[in-house]
Amino acid sequence: MNKNKLTTSWGAPVGDNQHSMTAGSRGPTLIQDVHLLEKLAHFNRERVPERVVHAKGAGAHGYFQVTNDVSKYTKANFLSEVGKRTPLFIRFSTVAGENGSADTVRDPRGFAVKFYTEEGIYDLVGNNTPVFFIRDAIKFPDFIHTQKRDPQTHLKNPTAVWDFWSLSPESLHQIMILMSDRGIPATYRHMNGYGSHTFKWVNAEGEGVWVKYHIKTEQGIKNLAPKVAVEIAGENPDYHTEDLFNSIEEGDFPSWKVSVQIMPLEDANKYRFDPFDVTKVWSHKDYPMIEVGRIVLNRNPENYFAEVEQATFSPGSFVPGIEASPDKMLQGRLFAYADAHRYRVGANHQHLPINRSKSEVRTYQRDGQMRFDDNGGKSPYYEPNSFDGPEESPEHRPSTSVVSGLAESVGFDHHDHYTQPGDLYRLLSDEEQERLIQQIVASMAPVTKDEIKLRQIQHFYKVDPTFGKRIAQGLGIAIFN
């Protein structure tokens, strides 16, 4: 019997800490999973006052312009006609470091876009990678703990990082991207952005498709060699922040091409990879890129705190025509991000100028800290009412989706963690493979337990036998064929 049982904060034993409770294998996630909600809510309150993740960042204003008609796929107004422009704000960031950390560390980069549409705020909260380390939100607090500082030494802990990764083989795809040349972008301007998750687009006829976002830099991909990145970190830890500000200030406006992959709804049940697994990508041969528009950044913030630091993004900020998918990681983020902002900035964070919708906001929300408008005045403060208060618009109801199954904590139906990382490895040139291996070896070398190293090497061996052997050789560990 296990005497060292994991419990909730109120002392009850936890039966499953790997899978959130969903309605069937594809969800959606159930709010009755109080263990998941407690983990996410507590996690959001672990740091004061900076963001618990993505603390160090830079941002700028600009616009999005439609370049291709996609109205047959979505009724979203800001995508409705070629040439239409929508103002936006983007915040770029590192993930694990504190607010004063260096810009040039090996880390994923946040790529969060706030569209000020005529139908409200639409936030596309992504990264510079098309996949992520985990695929269930219940594992997110544990994962980020490994990226933060050890509670005893207050130092970064490679043993914790690789222990978690070696016990979570779904992380392989993202690990390989992180340890590749793209792990350290040269600047924020020279990296791509991705929505990462699968989302749902719905057109005016109520017909839906699954969609993935790709935001490709028009400056070209450029990366930093590890030694150069370390040198810059020591000389100018704000290198990326400075580069973005100066390029815009000098009139060299960075831009990105926005495209999507479109999957028919029915394909989700027959595609060879689960399309709602954020550790996987969709083949471009199966679902080609479709151009949507172009992003240009052309104006710097006037005040960093007011605009960059107080900017709040949530993947749950949708507009009509764009909806969530059953992606379990996305489902958790729909709650966690907005809750983090209510804690960090306040319940009225959406009233701040940087977060405020350009269209009129009419709600029955009242009071709360830092309510700095007229708080609704004397207008009706409940609904339904008999005093001409705002009413729902049935035509804007989300599209329907079929759910079924037992309410239980379940994993994904597909557990192939090795095919896509293997394909990625074999796409790399010999020189890129060598640099990838060198970086992984250097990252794993400080791990204090050989058991963890061996477990991770076994995963790399399954990705590609030669890959696994070369890493083992670099670490001085003998493995059997």
TrEMBL record:
SUPFAM superfamilies: Heme-dependent catalase-like. It comes from the Bacteria. Keywords: Heme, Hydrogen peroxide, Iron, Metal-binding, Oxidoreductase, Peroxidase. It catalyses: 2 H2O2 = O2 + 2 H2O. The keyword Metal-binding applies. It is an enzyme of class 1 (oxidoreductase). Transmembrane segments: none annotated. Its EC number is 1.11.1.6. Residues 7-391 form the Catalase core domain. Residues 357-376 have a biased composition (Basic and acidic residues). GO terms for molecular function: catalase activity. Residues 1-10 have a biased composition (Polar residues). The keyword Disulfide bond does not apply. It holds the Pfam family Catalase-rel. Residues 1-25, 350-404 are annotated as: Disordered. Belongs to the catalase family. This is Catalase. It comes from Bacillus spongiae.
